[in-house]
Amino acid sequence: MGKKGNLMSVRHDIKVLDATIRDGGLVNDFYFDDEFIRDLYKANVDAGVDYMEFGYKASKDLFDENKFGKWKFCDEQSIRDIVGDNDTDLKISVMADVGRTNYKRDIIPRSESVIDMVRVATYINTIPAAIDMAEYCHKQGYETTVNIMAISNAKESDMKQMLELLGQSSVEAIYLVDSYGALYPEQIREIADMYLEYGEKYGKSIGIHAHNNQQLAFANTIEALGQGVSYLDATMSSMGRGAGNCPMELLIGFLQNPKYNILPVLKFIEKQIIKLKNEGITWGYDIQYLLTGRFNLHPSSAISFTKDKRTDYATFYSELLDKE
Amino acid sequence: MGKKGNLMSVRHDIKVLDATIRDGGLVNDFYFDDEFIRDLYKANVDAGVDYMEFGYKASKDLFDENKFGKWKFCDEQSIRDIVGDNDTDLKISVMADVGRTNYKRDIIPRSESVIDMVRVATYINTIPAAIDMAEYCHKQGYETTVNIMAISNAKESDMKQMLELLGQSSVEAIYLVDSYGALYPEQIREIADMYLEYGEKYGKSIGIHAHNNQQLAFANTIEALGQGVSYLDATMSSMGRGAGNCPMELLIGFLQNPKYNILPVLKFIEKQIIKLKNEGITWGYDIQYLLTGRFNLHPSSAISFTKDKRTDYATFYSELLDKE
Prior knowledge:
globular; homodimer; 13 helices; TIM Barrel; eight-stranded parallel barrel; alpha/beta; 324 residues
């Protein structure tokens, strides 16, 4: 694949998606106050962000409503309480995890909903179930994407088979998700090229969702963008599980299209993110996340290390060696 | 230029340089205790680092010895107190700033010194003075490099003229220095290619020194490496002016040559860097540094913003707009 655009060009195919509530909710069990969500919505509208993801459509049969904030479930009314009829250019998305969503009950027809897009999250081995769910949502009238997590663990041959299946489906976009923050830019470019090849063949857009374990979430996002990837996930101040995501402030600062405006992002961080951090909510690059990224492992052990306020990095390194 | 090596290959031309004292000293006016420096020296030896930079050779005529720690001056005896005769594979470097070093007095013959390399730091408009200093140090027996700072502000035609002059000099390596943390990977690859073209023509190595204003110091370093750059600056936990540098722990984690070992780096961070941070020494990525990087400005205003414990990012953004 050739490069698509450069630092002087505007790409009108770009869609910036704010995943602050959804990935950030993994840090605080989705307990955001309504003012935070209202300010975030306003910041995204003003900043020219294309999509705002409000959270998960998790099944209340599987997850106890008393143990999570409302954005793990994203009831229609919860979103409407914030956005009304959403009379803005910002589209609204929710994420539905394969095996954790009662979609036939909980995903109502789009004509009755303020939601525009459903993103289906899956590991590569549950692609058939993901496609079933995406097709259901498509028939309900939604834009859909399938986001394949932990792609750093996938074999090339499996990836090609998966891309072939997704190419033939009704989804708008296929996401490359580096859940473990394990991938370097040269790997991201290669994987993005593979996705883009199938994307061109079948008329699908390609997206990227990066994690910051090795301080590469922003670099990997803009390198993928340079190859032709167009759906770009970011979060305010990188809020997200473990080392967090691609920081919205860096991404908006990078994009050339004058529709994007960094000032509302700065104001939101100033007012809401600093408050969260002062309350002790913790995320972002640290040695333990670098190590799970480097070992291509789920960040769960690094998250425990952080919660336990440990700083014995050398011991943690030895513990990870045993998990390889 | 073609790519040089990939993730599976070992590049024997790579030289990792630890600049923790020198760039980190800009954060704490070079007031490190001797135990910190001894532990850092031991960590670098054990980690397989190639060079350790002890600090600046600043002139005591210009700078008051009572206002800075000893590593701003790097007296021969100060270094020997730490390393003895340095009977290790780790080489020792110091930095000499053009116009701030009385080099004819303070750079003694290498045969009498434990220092191996002198790195001359210059802006592009003082290249003739930098070459004079480098030639003097070369004649004294040292390895030399010239490090051209703030390259994000230089014109291409000036860069080519400068590279021609340095190509014809006696220096071992020419450094690309992104002092403002302003450059994106695609720009770094282009500039690195230009440097490498002259490097190949004249038999010079090329180096990179990156800053982390946009969380790109590591990405830019490994992308330059992929193009053929071989002298790589890093600091422990990215300690350095403003947003800091390329983190040593990420760089060592990336390199494939088994001579490099991350464990001593982790132990050093655990013991010494956490202590510094707990003492209130501050550096690293933050919104104010992103903004000076994005505006391609010296980080001084962001450093003042940090010292004043300000968090009014939107106001700071407006202040920078006025400086454009």
